[in-house]
Amino acid sequence: MSLAIFDLDNTLIAGDSDHAWGEFIIAEGIVDGEAFKTANDKFYSDYENGTLDIHAYLRFALAPLTRFSMAELGQLHQRFFERVIKPMLLPKAEALITEHREKGDRILVITATNRFVTEPIVQALGISEILASEGEIVGNRYTGEPAGIPCFQHGKVTRLNSWLEQQCASLDGSWFYSDSANDLPLLEVVDHPVAVDPDSRLRQTAIKRGWPIISLR
């Protein structure tokens, strides 16, 4: 059994769920629209440029979650999924997941976006295993603080290595699909790196190294 690893945002879905969640809670009136949008857009630009302070961003993204119970957050996410995420779903991505599953590969999503935003999306894609950035939960409520190592850049490799050890698994024959140059550390350690609708930095690297470039759009 080989491991087929997928990034989520702009890879398996046609957009960034984290940034979209920020826009959704602005539209819902949960946060101060102008100030939150300015910060949300700046963090996203930093992500695209490879300069994101992931801890600062996670504190920003997790802060609004502290206002709600888990039940209330679940209801919010259901609305978010129906209105925002469903239009981002990609038939070609679902077909690729099915192709790997039919080969007997083990499917894993690894994403820098926090688990609250991403886990329901990953489950809707029929995938049960996910590594994501974590938010601290105390008394069944988010505290607004990150927990553990963020699943970002080299942190993805660190988190994956810990998971592999726990699962008694290996990267033999492994695949990793991603759109972002932020994922180069992980792309470099799998047997089959694949650039999916890549950003310009990843496209240049993929061409230079002879990695496959595909589109799921």
List the helices and strands and how they pair.
Elements: E1 3-6, H1 17-27, H2 33-49, H3 54-62, H4 70-85, H5 91-102, E2 106-114, H6 115-124, E3 130-138, E4 141-147, H7 154-167, E5 175-178, H8 184-187, E6 192-196, H9 200-209, E7 213-214
Parallel strand pairs: 1-2, 1-5, 2-3, 5-6, 6-7
Antiparallel strand pairs: 3-4
CATH topology: Rossmann fold
Pick out the low-confidence regions.
none
- What is the average per-residue confidence, as pLDDT, rounded to a whole number? 97
State the helicity in percent bands.
Answer: 40-55%
Q: Widest sheet: strand order?
A: 4-3-2-1-5-6-7
What is the C-level CATH assignment?
A: Alpha Beta
Structure, explained:
By secondary structure, the protein is α/β, with parallel strands linked by helices. It has one domain (3-214): HAD superfamily/HAD-like (Rossmann fold, 3-Layer(aba) Sandwich), CATH 3.40.50.1000. It is built from 9 helices and 7 strands. The chain has helices at 17-27, 33-49, 54-62, 70-85, 91-102, 115-124, 154-167, 184-187, 200-209; strands at 3-6, 106-114, 130-138, 141-147, 175-178, 192-196, 213-214. It has a 7-stranded mixed sheet, with helices on both faces. Helix 1 (17-27) runs antiparallel to helix 2 (33-49). The protein is globular and about 45 Å long. The mean pLDDT is 97.
